[in-house]
Amino acid sequence: MSTWLHNRVVRQDDAWPRRLVWCLPMRVLVEQTEAEARRLVEAMGLRWDEHGDHTGKVGVHLLMGGTDTGDWHLYPEECAILIGTQDMLLSRALNRGYASSRARWPMEFGLLNSDCLWVMDEVQLMGPGLWTSGQLDWMRNDRFGTLFPCHTWWMSATNSAGFLDTLDRQTAKMRLPDELSCSVDQVPQGLRGARRPCRMWQPPVQKGKGKPKKQKMSPDEFLSLLAGAVGENHLAGTLSLVVCNRVKTAQDIYRLLNTRGCGGAELVLLTSRFRRGDREVHTKRLLSFEANRKAGKVQGGPGLICVATQVVEAGVDISATRLWSEVAPWPCLVQRMGRLNRDGRSNEHAQAVFFEVPQAGGERKATDRIGPYAADDVNLGRSLAERLCQVHGASDGTVPALEALARVSHSCQADVDRALAPKPEPFPRAIDVHGLFDTEPDLFGGFTDVSPFIRGQDEQADVTVFWREFNPAKPAMVPGDALTGPAFDSDEGCSVAVHRLRGFLDETNQAWVWGEAEGCWREIRGADVCPGMVVLLPRSAGGYSEDIGWTGTPADKLTTASAPGPFEEAFAADPPTEQGFWVMIPDHLADAVSAGQQILERLGLGVARPLVAQAVAHAIAHHDIGKALLPWQNALPLPRPKMDTAEPWAKAPLLFAVEPGTCDLHPDAVESVLSRAEVRFLRCPDASPALKGTRILWQTDRPVVDSVASRPRTAIENLPGHPRAYMVSFRPGLRHELASGLALWHQYFREGGNFPALSIYLATTHHGKVRTILTARNLAGDDVCGIPLNTGPLPWQGGMPMDFACVVDGCAGAFTPDGTGFVSESPGWTALVADLLGGWEARPPDPVRLAVRDNAEPAHLGPFALAYLEAVVRCGDARASRNPSRKVPVGGSES
After folding, report:
1. Average pLDDT, rounded, for the chain
2. For the chain, N or C: smaller number of CB within 10 Å?
């Protein structure tokens, strides 16, 4: 991290990418890395606060399930550090961003596959994600290419480069990256001599006639004896760490230790199955103890026992005196041993103990899984752990830990190599990523599942679950903007393994997910659950305890929960472009051109790729002309400002609705609440019937939502008659960006417009909702994206004809009178997309062009570059929307 900051930010070396993408396998590692990144950037005085000027500053952004990722995607020309889990980052790099709206997928896809330095950290825990990172690296640097360099580093204490030896990389003759390793001599002397003696643990055996025999005991009996041994061997004033392979095993041991008391030692449970707030409480207790231990403030105290899963295997800066580890794959055991006597101050008392929980119902099969691990990998790990115990036993525990590991590697080299080699996993080929460029749903309304390339069939692949208070028999899941509860908050989400939630739903059959197309929560079954989902459960369904996290037990229930709300506030679906004031189209386009020009200049695209820069600039200058359509203008709320000019509007205030309850509602009472919430508002007494109905509408300059500081919606709903209050989405019934594209299409193909065809595509895709396919909304098929096929010229600059010939499947034209020939009139939309995107195979020297006129024009750009250019146009639009040069506030005059 320091290396990137020094070279890219301090030295301003353009050879280093603008974005540092730090990818980690687990949430707990992400949070710690983000804290370290913020500390480092702030110490250098370089951190961007997300409000002021970004120039010369570095944004630090968290990409983790359910978190607010910030505005990193709006500044492609500035430096940023992005830290996230492999689920969040790799799904976005594959154009299927988990917990991200479909419209935003292409933007993040383009930005994360260009101008980035990816750091894959703790790769031994990534499974298929490791192979996917290698394939994406090949596609960026060989098959598809990018507009700006994109490199990848892989880091681990137990690394092997076998995942880079794929057929695609071999065919491309890509050499293996340079390997940088840390020798023993580079380790500080104090840590070099740290001792970590270890032994295998067996429960007490019954003695009978002859030799003692091992007891055949149940897992519950075994864990009871193990918990007793952990408590008895704990040393006062120190940290004992117990690491288990399964969450349930950790929870059971925690319960047993809690029952025994353990001499007053503090107990902490750490797994990935907590809501963020609950997990932070436990994590802070552990880290606080460690800070006090290092400061010498815990001597004489009872100490602390932490029971955890693999969340502590890597990146957690703790130093235990006793380590109890369930037998696991060798790389995991090495990582866990790194938590024992980490600071080298417990050489006299440090001790690691390995244990193996017996299989319920008989012997374990080779095909079984032990938590997230294959049984064969665990068996190999046990064999090497036994060899490590022998090394320490032969030296009475005095051999330093690093030397002991070296002896094991020397004597068991073949087994160590086999243990460290990455397991073959599914990985994407070029044809897969090329196909993922399309973000349209399939015939069944679903999307290509990329989870095999991220977590594979890993049972630990997660969904996020949260609870709300409602009657599951009568959920009343009305459209999202009419729900009374707050929107989903990442703090209330709990990560749950997919197979655990499926099993839970087989019993309760009560779950809902947000339907983007329907705009409301829709019920699902257990079989419908897929990785990355955010799933709503009724509080009455249970399954969660604040003390031990997800249990899957219906009797474990939250004390309180809010009423259901939307997944995200409707106005937040495209937050950068919804700002709450009036702006005319000419002013917005001028602002967007200015913002776009700034981005292009900082990126240097005008010099490196002048025709590409021309296409971007032309698209930005025309992206919103489609809003001049009368149906779009007529859908805007009333009253509208009276201006000296008759220019059409590009932006309008937000709309807030109140539906009267059982008695008459007094608007003055609502306005009194709005004034206290410091919201600028204007009642809409003459709102269009399509908007109003039985509700009363107000224009507002900001969202009227409940927050910690203010609860205006709750106050309004507590008025006499208990009205419902909610924000209203602006739905004009058509996609204005396609109207912009159709007008540019006519200029390019009918009038010989002097701009690249790429401009047509970029103007049309600037909201991420119209991209590779044009569809009709009416069953009659007489429209395209809500625009009737008989619509006249676009009322802009004296009238701009819109060319609907491109919407047909294939190309427009006519057969000759004798029926033996066909005269093409215009290529189809898919022909333009095919020209700009190119194929999935290696780019031919002279590619065929179906729609693009001039061979000098940008074409066959590949999925990464084309999506990146979409992002640049959208950034210009969003930044212009946020900072208009001229605007009319709600109920006010021009400013």
Report:
1. 87
2. C
Hey, is 800 helix, strand or coil? strand
Among 36-40, 463-467, 528-532, 539-543, the minimum mean pLDDT is found in 528-532
Domains and CATH numbers, the chain: 2-186 (3.40.50), 193-204+215-420 (3.40.50.300), 459-572 (no CATH), 582-649+733-895 (no CATH)
Q: Is 608 buried (19+), middle (13-18) or exposed (0-12) by CB count in 10 A?
A: exposed
**DSSP class per residue in 341-372:** STTS--TTT-EEEEE-PPPTTSPPPTT-EETT
Separation of alpha carbons 650 and 848, rounded Å: 39
Residue in 810, 845, 859 with CA at minimum distance from that of residue 830:
810
The Cα–Cα gap between 277 and 264 comes to 25
Task: Using alpha carbons, select from 378, 537, 545 the residue that is nearest to residue 471.
Answer: 537
Give the CA distances from residue 769 to residues 39, 40, 728, 785, 805, in Å, rounded to whole numbers and listed in that order.
38, 38, 20, 10, 20
**303 to 240, 289, 718, 820: CA distances (angstroms):** 8, 8, 50, 90
Name every residue whose Cβ is closer than 8 Å to that of residue 531 and which is 6 or more positions away in sequence.
Answer: 87, 98, 451, 454, 455, 461, 462, 463, 498
Helix or strand (DSSP H, E) at 486: none
Q: pTM of the prediction? A: 0.82
Residues 6+ apart with CB under 8 A from 14: none
Q: What is the pLDDT of residues 514-550, one digit of tens each?
A: 876 667 888 888 888 887 788 999 999 999 999 999 9
Taken in order 569, 575, 578, 579, the sign of the CA dihedral is positive
Cβ-count burial of 528 within 10 angstroms (0-12 exposed, 13-18 middle, 19+ buried)?
middle
Picking from 891, 771, 858, 691, the residue whose alpha carbon sits closest to that of residue 105 is 771
pLDDT band at 470 (very low <50, low <70, confident <90, very high): confident
Nearest CA among 105, 110, 64, 109 for reference residue 83? 64
8 Å CB contact between 159 and 420: yes
- Under a CB-based contact definition with an 8 Å cutoff, are residues 307 and 257 in contact? yes
CA of 461: how far to CAs of 275, 308, 501, in Å? 17, 18, 11
User: What strands lie across the sheet with 520-523, from one edge to the other?
Assistant: 494-497, 462-468, 534-538, 512-515, 520-523
Tell me the C-alpha distance between 69 and 99, whole Å. Answer: 11
Model pLDDT for residues 506-522, shown as the tens digit of each residue: 887 789 988 766 678 88
- Report whether 626 contacts 561 (CB < 8 A): no
| DSSP line for 530-567 | -TT-EEEEEGGG--EETTTEE---TT---S--PPP--S
H or E, element range at 482? none
Backbone φ, ψ for residue 181 (5° rounding): -125, 155
How far apart, in whole angstroms, are the C-alpha atoms of residue 675 and residue 137?
54
Which range of 207-211, 438-442, 732-736 scores highest in mean pLDDT? It is 732-736
Which amino acid, residue 27?
Answer: R
Nearest to 28 by CA among 373, 283, 254: 283
